[in-house]
Design goal:
alpha/beta, Rossmann fold, eight-stranded mixed beta sheet, 9 helices, globular, hydrolase activity, AB_hydrolase_fold, Hydrolase of the alpha/beta superfamily, Polyketide_trans_af380, hydrolase
Length: about 300
């Protein structure tokens, strides 16, 4: 419960500290002088290398047992986008924090890059708990997980089968399964879904025969008069100095874009089924009261068991 109650207060205070203009107030590339950072690598259960940034409070007692939090980045992003900021702000408050690149993204292993695999993504969080549990300075009975955007659905999926995750929090969560199957506000028809799946399987065969990989639109690379408001928000972060980041060896124009041929794995992803089995471990859902993705946090909150909190 300590992680659950502290997370709510600390996340709110961290947002407040960034100033009133939330469109540009938070510094994604914030560097704290109150924490230490080091890069770590460990293997998930698929024997793939997962790369992360480990943050610790400056001067932390290495002989004490300190609570820890694993933090996951938005879908299509990498650990340098949003996750590092959350990790440093929470480490400043006394937590050991570990941000990871999901498999197939950023510095973590996985070929081809940008492949969708929610099962492996979820295991990456359990692997992070494995790593933290072996560190002498971490309280293995007080490890929580925090998922931002799409990672919110991955940490829930992981927590359902990993009771070592003692508290679960999400911020602006996307249920990636529902988002791909149904669209926002269930705007996608069954016929459209079937057509989407058909195009993915056709592309899969193209790649099997040695053809080029195709990607689905992530964040647009340019704005025009027809660009929807939601995409303009994404562009303002992922395609500007505010939050844009291109991992080494990647093409800037392909960042945020998953592989088309792998979307079926999201179509078959139902992270909120049996979410109530996480109880009595506490769950915290944070979302904006006008966020376009608010429906996912509300749905998860409705299905979750106690104790739980929805903060808007």
């Amino acid at each position: 419960m300590r992680i659950f109650t502290m997370l709510l207060g600390l996340l709110i205070s961290s947002f407040a500290a960034t100033g009133a203009d939330m469109s540009n107030g938070a510094d994604n590339f914030y560097k704290s002088d109150k924490v230490t950072q080091k890069k770590v690598t460990f293997k998930n259960q698929y024997q793939m290398n997962v790369v992360g940034n480990l943050f610790m409070p400056e001067g932390m007692d290495q002989n004490a047992k300190t609570p820890a939090i694993v933090i996951g980045h938005p879908m299509g992003a990498v650990k340098e986008q949003s996750s590092n900021l959350y990790a440093q702000k929470l480490a400043e408050q006394g937590f050991v924090t570990l941000v990871i690149d999901l498999s197939f993204w950023g510095e973590s292993e996985g070929k081809p890059g940008h492949l969708i695999s929610p099962e492996i993504y979820s295991d990456d969080f359990s692997a992070a708990v494995d790593y933290l549990s072996t560190q002498s300075y971490v309280d293995s009975e007080n490890i929580g997980v925090l998922g931002i955007c799409g990672s919110g659905s991955f940490v829930i999926s992981a927590a359902k089968v990993d009771p070592r995750m003692k508290a679960i929090a999400t911020v602006s969560m996307y249920d990636m399964g529902s988002a791909f199957r149904n669209g926002l506000h269930h705007s996608v028809t069954p016929e459209q879904r079937k057509a989407f799946i058909k195009s993915a399987t056709e592309q899969r065969l193209v790649e099997f025969k040695g053809g080029e990989i195709a990607y689905i639109p992530g964040t647009v690379n340019k704005l025009d008069d027809a660009t929807p408001a939601i995409q303009r928000e994404f562009f303002d972060f992922y395609r500007t100095p505010r939050g844009g980041y291109t991992p080494q060896g990647e093409k800037e124009e392909l960042t945020t874009k998953p592989m088309l041929s792998s979307i079926g794995k999201f179509m078959n992803f139902y992270p909120f089924n049996d979410i109530d089995t996480i109880s009595p471990r506490p769950m915290l859902f944070i979302t904006g009261d006008q966020a376009h993705s608010k429906e996912f946090s509300e749905d998860a909150y409705k299905r979750a068991g106690q104790p739980k909190e929805l903060y808007m």
